[in-house]
Q: What sequence folds into this?
DNA sequence: TTATAAATGTGCGTATAACGAACATTTTAT
DNA sequence: ATAAAATGTTCGTTATACGCACATTTATAA
């Protein structure tokens, strides 16, 4: 992939891959597991894990390693260095207040939606929501509206690499259906995800353009499905999202 | 520092230092700035920035680099891999509901407090609160209660490296005063930070022990100073924190 | 507009960082 | 108790990453 590319630091790539190898399924890794997950040799993986531990990003009980809160500093480097979440927060809060539901700002990152902000006065919608959390783009309203604004080549690449999981009975898994939903989102200028990600969770999202007209962000409101029909979301929440989006776009 | 240490990957250390060089003061870095901030040569810094851009962790407008949301994945690797925030969330929520204020869970990381979770049904207390956000430990209740449970050597090291900023007129900046406040927190088993971090912000915190009796975490409630006196916080909120702490400790 | 300062891109020779295989030892699972 | 898996370590090797120097470009100040 990056073999023989000039000015590339392969050791950084491998080190970041080792950090990313930790996940919910394997919160602790021993050296052999880390080697398997990253494709590194055991000796290499061991060196990276020891280095992370020495730098304070991981700790070890002897044989197993786990990450420490210090790795949040890396994500924090992004949050503190971009004015976007700060600029957007009042608008996200305002949408949350006007709709009485949870509003969110998110970006698309490869095949996942990553949250950049939530309204502060939130009601409980889903089990776990926080900045940095990410969901599969194929079954989120946010993912569809951002994808709809990408080039055909980018969408084709997204679909080509896609291995969609059926997260609920409502989750589309056919690439054709997913593509059609993305196209529909482009036509409508919004998208609704109705219990595709999680039973009981219903979301509506709009894309957000920057000053060059590019779309890398989306705004969404999410709620418990029993609280409002899709039709009412379109009638009552979509206008609030669009108004918030218009205001945010004057700041980008 | 780590020169001549076995099994150390220096390139990973340098790469992570480059990521951490981005902050609120310098959200965008050119090659020369990154070199100065990290102590690397310009050529080295350039290689790391190009590598981060190639891997999608940064982007460049030609000469200036900025981080992308992808670096949140690194922090997310911690959040998704540790059960702690998931386990603690119901308790943090419960504290938030019982007190009607914002409850938080945090860890101490060197000289800073880093938030690991907030109660979901939150009222607006401070401008910006999210997981991963960090504050100076010397003027937070959370920082003091966690520090109070560390070894004398660790506290001495903390104080030796401290360069306290006067964030409000109430912020202690004398190392002697800061040390005394840490000792008092140890005696009391709790601490109150009264507008030391931010005008209008008042917090009370308790330390949380793990099953080995070590303290790496704290639980806190924060509120607008006008809403409750310090005496009332001690009388009414401290018991709720202690109850929540007792419950959380059974799970650690 | 011009001069100066700052930043950058690149090539290339060099040093050592990181590699990986092999082997002995330890830990874990059956 | 045995087998499987994991680990720690050594050491020769390779290629990764370095850093300097120089030419070029960009930004800033006059």
A:
């Amino acid at each position: 992939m990056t073999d023989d590319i000039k000015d590339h630091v392969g050791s950084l790539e491998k080190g970041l891959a080792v950090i990313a190898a930790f996940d919910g399924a394997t919160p602790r890794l021993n050296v052999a597991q880390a080697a398997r997950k990253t494709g590194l040799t055991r000796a290499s993986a061991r060196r990276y894990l020891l280095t992370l531990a020495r730098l304070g990003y991981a700790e070890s009980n002897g044989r197993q390693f786990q990450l420490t809160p210090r790795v949040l500093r890396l994500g924090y480097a992004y949050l503190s260095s971009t004015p976007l979440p700060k600029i957007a927060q009042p608008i996200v809060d305002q949408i949350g207040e006007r709709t009485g539901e949870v509003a969110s700002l998110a970006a698309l990152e490869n095949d996942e939606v990553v949250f950049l902000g939530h309204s502060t006065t939130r009601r409980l919608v889903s089990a776990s929501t926080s900045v940095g959390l990410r969901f599969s783009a194929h079954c989120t309203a946010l993912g569809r509206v951002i994808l709809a604004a990408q080039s055909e080549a980018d969408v084709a690449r997204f679909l080509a690499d896609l291995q969609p999981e059926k997260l609920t009975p409502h989750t589309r898994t056919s690439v054709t259906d997913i593509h059609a939903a993305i196209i529909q989102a482009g036509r409508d200028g919004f998208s609704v995800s109705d219990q595709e990600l999680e039973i009981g969770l219903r979301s509506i999202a709009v894309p957000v353009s920057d000053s060059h007209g590019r779309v890398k962000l989306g705004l969404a409101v999410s709620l418990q499905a029993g609280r409002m029909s899709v039709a009412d979301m379109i009638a009552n929440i979509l206008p609030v999202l669009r108004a918030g989006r218009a205001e945010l776009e004057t700041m980008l």
